Amino acid sequence: MAEGEDHFLEVHLNLNVRGLSPSATVAINDRCNELRHEGREIFKLGLGQSPFPVPRPVVEALRQNAAQKDYLPVKGLWKLRETVAEHHRHTFGIDCAPDDVLIGPGSKELMFLLQLVYYGDLVIPTPTWVSYAPQAKIVGRQIQLLPTSMKTDWHLTPEQLEDLCKEDRGRPRILILNYPSNPTGRTYSLERLKEIAEVARRNRVVLLSDEIYGKLHHEGKHHSIVPLYPEGTIFSGGLSKWCGAGGWRLGLFVFPKSMRWLLNAMAAVGTETFTSTSAPIQYAAIRAFQGGPELDHYLQQSRRILGALGDLLTRLLRQSGASILSPHGGFYLFPNFSPHRDKLYARGIRTSPQMCQRLLEETGIATLPGSAFGRPPEEFTTRIAYVDFNGGKALAASEEIPPEQHLDEDFLRTHCGRVVNAVRRLCGWVLSPE
Ligand SMILES: Cc1ncc(COP(=O)(O)O)c(C=O)c1O
């Protein structure tokens, strides 16, 4: 009898979760760990996790608060909400107060709650982060995918949004914008954000602005759409990416005052589900959002490494014939290997999942297929998370190089060598005759 077939009870699963598989990013990580366990050398370019350690003052704050043991208010510790409001006012020009902030155990969980409590359609431009659509499916929301293309920078156009709204003007909708983007690394220009904000306002579309990679804009020039459409935009962020603390599980939303009803409804569900976010982590997060020179410095070095590495890898991939746009922020690349379609066909590879599967088995390089991000499987797009290097060592080495100096190829080969080698190997594999 196959594993899982020995059921004492018949299978009674909510229809919405029947056939739901684990998130693609989590699944690839598990598979990599299995292969490593078997002794294979694996390059982990699948899971999008920051390569950098949590900054020292934040770790110290956690240490000092390890004994915090009380349940905290469901919306978050007041001091943290104050600090988050101040931080986002100051950093992204978001006009908000502590009352507008909701803290949760990861922004992913908050997104899930949002979809649960808001009664409307979910509009998602593709390529898109892997979890938005499955969450909508779990709670039984309608999803409208708006496919984009490399020609529009992998971005939604204001015309696309207008056309969608025209179909049914009064329909309640949440549009999710994610920039810098996972999976493409691209971000919207201020001009484009203004145009989208205008269409959204005219049509009363709620925006969920997922800016979790905002502080990792490689040039530190992230623009938020919130100040352009403050009455209709929910900001989503957290500690996971810029602070290297994905496993700490702390996310946050900032709501417009006019949507306090939504915040309160999510918090009410929170009281019946997660109760409150981990207490020591919330105390440590206060330190993270207080910022200061050491944290600024950490961010500057992180951005400089990610920017230089993203540029080098883009060049390598482009030289190998892939179509690719260079990243503006975060740590992802989204090459399209369709120019090599004939070569891939000749090896019996017809879809992006097949390509990633074969790549992993034959070279040990783990990536994710574009289809996991809402792209058609027959398009040979792939997401590369360029994070498989020792971020602590790379940061220390970057400290030694004057801030105005670009990190050259020698630096990247020395300190991010695993990723550079993996991408070289990937290019060689795609180009190999069989
Ligand atoms: C685009 C995007 N949004 C949200 C999240 C969720 O982050 P967290 O739940 O760790 O706050 C991630 C994590 O991978 C992400 O890539």
Distance between the termini: 38 Å
Q: What is the C-alpha radius of gyration, as a whole number of Å?
A: 22 Å
Q: What percentage of the residues does DSSP assign to strands (E)?
A: 5-15%
Q: What structural class do you assign from the helix and strand content?
A: alpha/beta
The main sheet comes to:
7 strands, mixed
Number of helices: 15
- Name the shape in a single word: globular
SSE string, helix = H, strand = E?
A: HEHHEHEHEHEHEEEHHHEHHEEEHHH
Helix content: 40-55%
Written overview of the protein:
With 434 residues, the chain is of the alpha/beta class. It has 15 helices and 12 strands. The protein has helices spanning 24-37, 56-64, 78-92, 107-117, 132-139, 158-167, 190-202, 260-272, 279-290, 293-319, 341-346, 352-363, 391-399, 409-415, 417-431, and strands at 43-44, 101-104, 121-126, 143-147, 173-178, 206-210, 233-238, 251-254, 332-333, 365-366, 368-369, 382-385. The strands form 3 sheets. Strands 2-8-7-6-5-3-4 form a 7-stranded mixed beta sheet, sandwiched between helices. The protein is globular and about 60 Å long. The mean pLDDT is 95. The structure holds pyridoxal-5'-phosphate. Pyridoxal-5'-phosphate binds at residues 48, 106-108, 129, 178, 182, 210, 212, 238, 240, 246, 251.
Brief synopsis:
The protein contains 15 helices and 12 strands. The protein has helices at 24-37, 56-64, 78-92, 107-117, 132-139, 158-167, 190-202, 260-272, 279-290, 293-319, 341-346, 352-363, 391-399, 409-415, 417-431; strands at residues 43-44, 101-104, 121-126, 143-147, 173-178, 206-210, 233-238, 251-254, 332-333, 365-366, 368-369, 382-385.
